[in-house]
Amino acid sequence: MQKNICYLRASNQKGFSLIEVMIGLILGLFVILAAGQVFMASKKTTDFNAALGRIQEAGGLSFEMMARDFREAGANPCSSEMVPGSILNNRDNAWWSQWNGGLYGYTSTQNTPGISTGSSAGSRLAGTDAVDIYSALGDSNGGIANVVSKMASPSADIQISANSGFSTGDIALICDLDTAFLFQATQVNGTAIQHAAGSGAPGNCGKLFMTDGTCSNGTTGGYQFNPSSMIARTSITRWYVGKNEDGGNSLYRAQLRNTGNNSTPTLLERVEVVAGVSNLKIQYSSPSSSDYQNADSVTDWKTVKSIRIRLTLEDKPNAQTEAGIGDSGKGLVRNLTHIVSLRNRQ
Fold it and tell me: Which of 77, 245, 254, 330 is 20–30 Å from 37 (CA)?
């Protein structure tokens, strides 16, 4: 009788025992856990670097845009070193009719006229600084022109080049290399700008450009501007931190609207520049101070030579993809500082 070869071969086959299978599963689990930890650590590092990159990018953009405005503080078509006179009514009280050496800062405890502190979108965030920057260089609508002929008399209209974009009610600055004045255009007729007294808001306290600082509505004694003179619409730019529409905080740039018969200019144009800014601290340096000082310690804004800006930026994590970023998973927070030197300061 022959043996069943197939049966013998089948009976000699052996598989893994239960213990061997369990050991293999445990070893595989260790490998998976190790690979998972490496992946999670790598992802956390990647998320951290991405958040830090976003903060640095936001800070760089903020500082660049703020520095551009700060360097134009007090700028006009003639010379930024001169301090302009003014024939505006209420010139010492209306915040938007003052020049202040081209600059005026607010500490965290001082109110900013035109923008309230609160929780609505665009309002200022409590506990943060703000700053106004004054200049007279025209704008996207024009508002800058040459004086084409000498004023016929101290009280005469100002003759300018055509199509310059001026409107009745504009607050403007007229200047040459010797002097400058702020005034309101009470009537614009083609190439002639009137600067009468008593009309408009705030209106002019007098018709003459008096270099002694007084107001006069006479016909003699005022300064007469020559064809070498320039005239430009003024602008005020404000930087502050405010609430955004998403309920967070953002850095804002607000600009005074000063054209088109606005009887009293107000801050109408607010632009959200960078989200995630939770604090703004601005300090100022001048020859009379040994270190940077707060806005309420500055006694003469035209002597400010440099500005130190400190921003607090946050990059809040996504609850599902970046929960571990920052301190205790609350988000990455960084304080960035930048110093801006002002132009044309003696």
Answer: 330
